[in-house]
Every structure is written in structure tokens, then in C-alpha cells.
Amino acid sequence: xxxxxxxxxxxxxxxxxxxxxxxxxxxxxxxxxxxxxxxxxxxxxxxxxxxxxxxxxxxxxxxxxxxxxxxxxxxxxxxxxxxxxxxxxxxxxxxxxxxxxxxxxxxxxxxxxxxxxxxxxxxxxxxxxxxxxxxxxxxxxxxxxxxxxxxxxxxxxxxxxxxxxxxxxxxxxxxxxxxxxxxxxxxxxxxxxxxxxxxx
Amino acid sequence: xxxxxxxxxxxxxxxxxxxxxxxxxxxxxxxxxxxxxxxxxxxxxxxxxxxxxxxxxxxxxxxxxxxxxxxxxxxxxxxxxxxxxxxxxxxxxxxxxxxxxxxxxxxxxxxxxxxxxxxxxxxxxxxxxxxxxxxxxxxxxxxxxxxxxxxxxxxxxxxxxxxxxxxxxxxxxxxxxxxxxxxxxxxxxxxxxxxxxxxxxxxxxxxxxxxxxxxxxxxxxxxxxxxxxxxxxxxxxxxxxxxxxxxxxxxxxxxxxxxxxxxxxxxxxxxxxxxxxxxxxxxxxxxxxxxxxxxxxxxxxxxxxxxxxxxxxxxxxxxxxxxxxxxxxxxxxxxxxxxxxxxxxxxxxxxxxxxxxxxxxxxxxxxxxxxxxxxxxxxxxxxxxxxxxxxxxxxxxxxxxxxxxxxxxxxxxxxxxxxxxxxxxxxxxxxxxxxxxxxxxxxxxxxxxxxxxxxxxxxxxxxxxxxxxxxxxxxxxxxxxxxxxx
Lengths: 200, 486
Description:
The complex is a heterodimer of chains A (about 200) and B (about 475). Chain A has about 200 residues and is α+β, with helices and mostly antiparallel strands. Chain A has a domain at about 75-140. Chain A has helices at about 1-10, 35-45, 60-65, 75-100, 110-140, 175-185; strands at about 25-30, 50-55, 160-165, 190-195. Chain A has a 4-stranded antiparallel β-sheet, with helices on one face. In chain A, helix 4 runs antiparallel to helix 5 (about 110-140). Chain B has 18 helices and no strands. Chain B has one domain. At the A-B interface, helix 2, strand 2, helix 3, helix 4 and helix 5 of A face helix 2, helix 6, helix 8, helix 16 and helix 17 of B.
């Protein structure tokens, strides 16, 4: 049960488990962002869910084509902001009013007005740091080992190449039919990726 | 795909955009990678070593001056009784101000969908971070009792003593350190896809490992882009009010006091405009040099420079308007101390500094109304440097000319910096350029993934309109909702 949940969560990050015979998935290259978008839409409509597209830059409309919803990261940011605001308010009140009260020109030990700049800054600071931490967590990064790195062709993904990867862990994955489907969509280079666990 | 895509680029540009393309010279995605990456991969040029040793010498001067200061105390500076704030505060405000343009380009222009920012945002963000490091040197060293500098932070200690949160100086500690931290993570997050590019191009194992660690295993997966883009947008949305707040809080250091010439409500917006003004001038100065040396003229085009010059003209005019408003309010207030402070600025012992500021900030940028001049590289180079001279003098005028003649004429004095003051300031340029040159050498100086993303061929619908038959060949048709432009 817990293992299953972990697998599902990892799949949202693009981390899939290798299947029989170390097969991790199949990688197909497409010529340009337009073809990749069409292919992703088609793969999604075929019913695949454990697949991902890889491109040197984000492609407009790809989330919709792949059937992915909106990112939940905004809630993490919001939580960070609330945490920062609460901490700043509590800190200034406790330090000024409780722990170390000093009378300066008869001003109140704690008041909202002079506390606002620090409240603002800590709200921003915590929100920003949690946004970054949340982005890494949701993406499953850092991920130093990735079976896709075994592919020589895949090195160009950060340069000018566009790839679609279907993981072997997908229910519909088939060693024969899946590469055939990708070929029909116009993929120029198709290779199967094996998760051998070796150093390259 | 070069010739075919060239024709497509032109057709597409003519059809869908009235503006000129952001990237000139009909480059492919791979060309962008090459142009940018090659500078971090080739053998270090001799000229880089030359520039670096010069910058490093400046840094050494700064370190020696700071060591000398620590050994002897703040008496080695030119501070005197009415002028208790001198070069340290002037330089601090100057450097923080420079930083603002980077955040403006990376965050505010991002929110306004100004896609031309992609050519310059990386180097401008780097400039922000290095400028803030230079700024942070001064509050660190100016406290006098350096061993007590940690009292600025709320750290539990054996005295059971806490910072005083009613002081604007403490707000400054929080504002500037938050600004630095957020700028740093924003810069790093933006760089991850580009470091992954360097990792995948690496030829040596060590380089692949180092870049691999820094890029965190980035593979350009769309599941990752989805969270990444949202996070980037949120960071931009957080950095926007932050950058406006930082210089506002810096201005509170002055505005909350009762010194004539400081105690004005116009300070926050006027400081922010001035910060953006000086920061853009610095970006222009650096961009002109970098695009010549690194041959990135197709990515940082003359149009980019012109747009920045327009922002310099705009913010310079805002700053000039604020100078005049300050005068009007001083007169209109009827307070004789306020009125004296401003006539003293204009005609007193520091009139030379005042008129330097006025001519550099208000007068010279007005030449940018003329299109020919704001597209002339030598001309804008001179103006951009003059603007930064003027903005340094602005802070000098505000700090020194207000303090040197306060309420009590018997304590009036004239402030002159010592050689230690001057060399410490010169040395911070050494620190700045040392860091900047390391950045140019080892990290991608242009946001490759972002530049690729704004090229016409990055739009998946670019290929639909090109009419090259790709759509018809495939069994999979594009459904209507995907056909909408953008």
C-alpha cells in the first residue's frame, strides 16, 4: 500500500521503476516542438500515463497535451508566506514586549506599524525559499542518476533535440507495440532504455 | 533546418509580429547553445587573465584597506562630528541601487511579458548579486566595533539581548539580506537548465560531474518544466514587491530621521526610481563591453540597448522631477532649516557635488530623446558611465551636504574623505569585477533556454502555419483547442 503510493508519487516526478530485464522505457526523438506536441497529445489519448516529453525549453500547450493539471506549487508558496509572516510577528512581539522590553521615547514595546517592514521581508523570504524547495521536491530533484542519461542521443535534449519517453512501468507499455506507435507518429530515432545501474 | 527555417522565420515574423525578431541573424537553437556555451569551454583567453588580475588587484586593495580599518578603527576615515555618515553609507546605497536593475529585468519585465529581457536577464541578475555583495561589505565594516557586528541579527546570546525592531537600520538588515537571498535563488533556479546544457556538452569527466551536481539532474522533462515555470513566475511575483521595498527601506534610514534634507516623504519612490536608473546604466555599460568581447551581438541586439536607454531616460526624468519637487516642498513648507538645507546644497560648500549630480542625472540623459543618439553605442556608453557618476554623487549630496550643516552652526564642519575611504570604494569595484569575470568565464552568461523559448520556431504552432505538409502526413490531427495562437 505504502509502496504503491510511493511509486505513484514518484511517477508524478517522472521517476519510474524498471521492469523485467531492466527495461526502463523507450525514447523517441521528434524533429521539432510542433511534432512533439502532437505526439504527446496522441500518446495521452492512447491512454498512456507514465510518459514525459523532454525539450530544451518549455513548450507552450504541452501540459494540456499531456493531460497534466495545474502545478500545486502555489500552495507551497502561500504556506511559506504565512509561516514567514507568523514568525516575524511573533518574533518582534516576543523580543520587544516579553524578553527584552526597552522604553524608547515612551513608544509602545510592540506595535504593528514599525513591525511591518520586517514582517514583509520575512514573508517574502520564506515564500521564496519554500517555492524553490517545493519545486525541487515536486520534481524529484536532485536526481543524479537517471537511466535516460545512458542514451548518447539524449545528450542533445538540453541543446536542440525533442524527445518523448514512455516508461516501461506504464500499464499499456509493450516492447513491440509502443515503439511501433511512436514510429507511426513520425519519430526519427527510437531506442529502448535499460536501467542497468552501472556507471557510464 | 537552417535555410528552410529562415524562410519560415521571416514569414512567421511578418505575419504575427510587427516588431523585429528578438534574436537576429537567423540562428538555430543549436547556434544559441554554441554562441553562449563556447565561452565557458574554450581555453581561457589571455585578455581574461589581464582583466582578472586588474580586478583582483582592486579586490586586494579593498581587503588591505578593510584590514587597516579593523586594526585602527573608524578614525582612519574622514568622518567628523556633524558628518557621522560618510563614504560607507554613500557606497552602500550606491551599490544596492545598482543591483535593482537586475531584479527589475528578471522579475518585473518577466511579469509584464517583455520577452526582450531574455537576452540580458542572466548577466543583469549576476550584476545584482555582485553589487549587493559589494553593498553588504559596508554595513559589515562601518559598525566600528566589528566584533559586535552580529548584534544586527536576532541571534540568541548570553546577554539575553535582542535587536531593536523600531529602528530603520534594522529593517535594512532584513531588507538587504532577504533581497540578496531571494536574488541568489532566483538566479540559480534560472540557471539550472543552462548548467544542464553545459553538463551534456562536457568533454571531461570532472566538468561533467561538477555541472551534473549543479544542474541537479535536469533533463528538460515537461513534468519538471511545469513546476519550474510556475515556481519561476511565483519568484518573479515575490521579487517584484521585494525590489521596490528594498530601496524604500534604505530610504527610511534617512527619511525617518529629523535631519533637514532627509526628513521627506518623497524618499521611497525617489530612491527606487534612482536605483533603477543607476542599475540600468550599469547594465548598459556591462552589456556593451560583453557583447563586443563575447560576440553575442545577435542575442543582445541594439534594440535591447535602445529599450534600456528609454528606461534610463524615463527613470532619469523621474529622478530629476523628484529633485525639483524636493526644492518646491522645502520652500513651501516654510521651515527655515529645510529651506537652508536646500539652498546650501545648491550654493554652499558642496555646490560642486550638487551640480555634478544635476548635470549627470537630469541633463545628460535627456539626449536619449533623440533616436539616433540612443542607438549610438559610443554615445550611450559615455552616458551610462556619467549616470553612475551622477548617482554616486546623488547619495554623496544627500548624506554629506545634509549633515555637514545641521541645526547648530557652531558644530558646522566640512567633510573630506581620506585616502582609506577612497581606496576602499575603488576596491569594491575590484570585488565586483572579480566576481563578474568569474561569472563570465564559468557560467552561461545568457539564459539559453529562455532565449530559445522566445524564438519563433519554439512555438509549436509555428510549424502549422508554415504549410510544409507535416500536419497532413500524420494520422494524428491537431484538435481545435490547440490551434489558438499563443
